């Protein structure tokens, strides 16, 4: 027992002597001037250590730092680049004797980083990096890969990071962005075991403020080859004058698994919620290849985009805004070179999508980005009792991007589609449309000028709104016969059983050379142009009466006469007109032909029936 007693006393004296030596003879504060001078010599910056450096001992050994600041270059608006209020790191003393690391506490409080870009282009990082640093790193001996350190012996009692702020100040654009990590806390951490964590983060941006808070459980495998985050829930709130109702709320519930050995990552999104929009999905990443391979799958319920679209005021013109008074700056092609660094497969499904009045359902989209090319291999959706099918490709490898597409619309009710999509009420019926096209340049004006397309359409059992062709014919006939009385008002529409044609688009002009409309009463042929840039129309139609107009209040006296019509004006307000002069000429020609026939018959009679 006496031996044990003396051993304990000896150890106590040894520890006491070590503490006395460290605190009295080896005083950390004696090195403050040398540290400050070394930093200024290497960087040209001033380092401040306002508080005394202090040790902590048994049962843990640690160091407390506080009041530390590193200046920005001279003349910057923010004098300090980095400021730290307090740093505390305590390690259990006794486990160190067994080569075990038990960190009782890691605390970082009040870290502030001010990163400034001046008007002349200087930044806070200027002078911090030296060419000698790269040389010294290259000359350092490489590790032989052997180490006596066992990571499984690491234990952390807790990590607390509070009041950390990063300010990005750009004097060239006169903007400031502030990012604040209000708190990050990690509970007891040990390899192979689960540790709770939580965070609160805020950002102040030029046009909005953002706040995010979350919590979950972190697990790192004992071999440090796997990392997983379970029960990860995130709540995000954006506020700003330009946001819908000045606020957008988004929540995410996720599971994250990372395999460091195979360099694979998987993020399972069990819930994605943005205001009233709900969905789920998963993201898989293989980052072991030269270009990381990313596979994204997302599925949503109803998506209403209207709250996130700029509201259109009543009476607002559909025409493109006149920007002639604005400063004219030459448009440039968007740089799509970043597409070469992506290898992404993306699938998207949605029960319905609403944009303004346009509603589509059962979205199914598959696209990929590889080698600088975006390939939309499939986009299908149901719309207005019919369906939409689209394929498209965008090639961003050249300086001027090129694209092509193939689209078909089948069995769609055309009138509600037109009114909801473009607020144009001029045509109804069951429509089938096919379009293929290609072009170059993504500059908005060039999209119209360089797009070349062709297609055809078939519309069955519909009506042409805004004009009643039978009524126009009857009215014209009455005027030709001398009856100038007003016609009874009737609904302005012309029914048809089929409407077909083909079209081409080049240099913003849509040309249709072969419009054909058929109904029990009329036959209609047409051709003309529509300018999608100016949104104007110049079209001519020829109508033939093939049946009796009695069913619509007329007769068949104009049967067989070709009646010319014209359409002009804008897409929103087309104007229909009847060429009465041409109609009169057609009628006179018909009567002349009849007179010739009668004369011919009488001549044959006189010649004895020859």
If you had to describe this structure to a student in words, what would you say it looks like?
- By secondary structure, the protein is an alpha+beta fold.
- Among the domains are: 76 residues, no CATH class; 170 residues, no CATH class.
- Helices cover 17% and strands 49% of the residues.
- It has 8 helices and 30 strands.
- The protein has a 30-stranded mixed sheet that branches.
- A hairpin with a 4-residue loop joins strand 11 and strand 12.
- The longest helix is centred in the last third of the chain and has 27 residues.
- The protein is elongated.
- The termini are far apart.
- 11% of the residues are buried.
List the helices and strands and how they pair.
Elements: H1 2-25, H2 32-43, E1 47-49, E2 54-56, E3 60-71, E4 80-92, H3 93-96, E5 101-109, E6 112-117, H4 131-139, E7 154-156, E8 159-170, E9 175-186, E10 189-190, E11 194-204, E12 209-220, E13 226-239, E14 247-259, E15 264-274, E16 277-286, E17 293-304, E18 343-355, E19 358-370, E20 373-383, E21 386-395, E22 402-413, H5 414-422, E23 430-440, H6 444-450, E24 452-465, H7 469-480, E25 493-506, E26 509-518, E27 522-531, E28 536-545, E29 562-570, E30 574-578, H8 580-606
Parallel strand pairs: 5-7, 5-8, 6-8, 17-18
Antiparallel strand pairs: 1-3, 2-3, 3-4, 4-5, 4-6, 7-10, 8-9, 9-11, 11-12, 12-13, 13-14, 14-15, 15-16, 16-17, 18-19, 19-20, 20-21, 21-22, 22-23, 23-24, 24-25, 25-26, 26-27, 27-28, 28-29, 29-30
């Amino acid at each position: 027992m006496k031996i044990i007693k003396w051993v304990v006393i000896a150890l106590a004296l040894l520890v006491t002597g070590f503490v006395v030596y460290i605190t009295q003879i080896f005083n950390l504060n004696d090195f403050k001037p040398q540290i400050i001078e070394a930093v200024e010599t290497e960087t040209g910056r001033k380092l401040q250590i306002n508080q005394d450096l202090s040790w902590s001992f048994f049962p843990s050994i640690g160091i407390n730092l506080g009041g530390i600041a590193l200046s920005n270059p001279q003349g910057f608006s923010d004098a300090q680049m980095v400021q730290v209020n307090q740093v505390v790191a305590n390690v259990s003393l006794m486990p160190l004797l067994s080569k075990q690391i038990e960190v009782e506490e890691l605390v970082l409080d009040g870290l502030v980083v001010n990163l400034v870009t001046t008007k002349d282009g200087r930044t806070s990082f200027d002078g911090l990096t030296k060419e000698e640093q790269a040389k010294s790193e290259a000359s350092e001996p490489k590790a032989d890969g052997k180490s006596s350190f066992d990571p499984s012996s690491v234990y952390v009692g807790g990590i607390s990071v509070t009041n950390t702020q990063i300010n990005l100040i750009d004097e060239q654009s006169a903007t400031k962005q502030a990012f604040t990590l209000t708190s990050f806390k990690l509970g007891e951490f040990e390899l192979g075991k689960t540790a709770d964590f939580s965070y609160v983060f805020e950002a102040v941006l030029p046009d909005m403020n953002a706040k995010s808070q979350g919590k979950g459980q972190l697990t790192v495998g004992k071999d440090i080859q796997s990392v997983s985050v379970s029960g990860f829930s995130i709540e995000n709130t954006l506020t700003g004058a330009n946001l819908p109702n000045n606020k957008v709320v988004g929540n995410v519930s996720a599971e994250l698994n990372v395999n460091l050995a195979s360099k694979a990552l998987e993020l399972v999104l069990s819930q994605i919620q943005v205001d009233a929009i709900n969905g789920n999905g998963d993201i898989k990443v293989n980052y072991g290849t030269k270009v990381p391979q990313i596979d994204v799958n997302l599925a949503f319920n109803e998506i209403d985009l209207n709250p996130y679209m700029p509201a259109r005021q009543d009476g607002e013109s559909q025409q493109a805004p006149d920007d002639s008074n604005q400063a004219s700056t030459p448009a440039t092609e968007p740089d799509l070179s970043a597409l070469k660094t992506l290898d992404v497969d993306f699938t998207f499904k949605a029960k319905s999508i609403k944009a303004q009045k346009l509603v589509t359902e059962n979205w199914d989209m598959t696209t990929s980005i590889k080698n600088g090319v975006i390939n939309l291999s499939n986009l299908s959706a149901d719309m207005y009792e019919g369906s939409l099918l689209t394929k498209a490709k965008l090639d961003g490898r050249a300086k001027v991007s090129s694209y092509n597409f193939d689209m078909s619309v089948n069995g769609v009710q055309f009138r509600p589609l037109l009114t909801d999509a473009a607020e144009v009420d001029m045509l109804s019926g069951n429509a089938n449309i096919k379009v293929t096209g290609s072009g170059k340049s993504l500059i908005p004006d060039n999209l119209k000028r360089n797009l070349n397309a062709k297609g055809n359409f078939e519309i069955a059992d519909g009506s042409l709104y805004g004009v009643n062709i039978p009524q126009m014919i009857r009215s014209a006939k009455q005027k030709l016969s001398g009856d100038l009385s007003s016609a009874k008002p009737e609904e302005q529409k012309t029914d048809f059983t089929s409407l077909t044609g083909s079209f081409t688009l080049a240099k913003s002009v849509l040309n249709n050379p072969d419009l054909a409309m058929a109904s029990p009463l009329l036959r209609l042929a047409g051709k003309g142009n529509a300018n999608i840039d100016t949104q104007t129309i110049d079209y001519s139609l020829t109508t033939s009466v093939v049946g009796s107009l009695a069913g619509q209040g007329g007769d068949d006296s104009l049967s067989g006469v070709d009646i010319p019509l014209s359409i002009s004006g804008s897409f929103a307000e087309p104007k229909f007109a009847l060429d009465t002069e041409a109609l009169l000429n057609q009628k006179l020609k018909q009567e002349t032909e009849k007179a010739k026939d009668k004369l011919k018959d009488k001549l044959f009679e006189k010649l004895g029936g020859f």
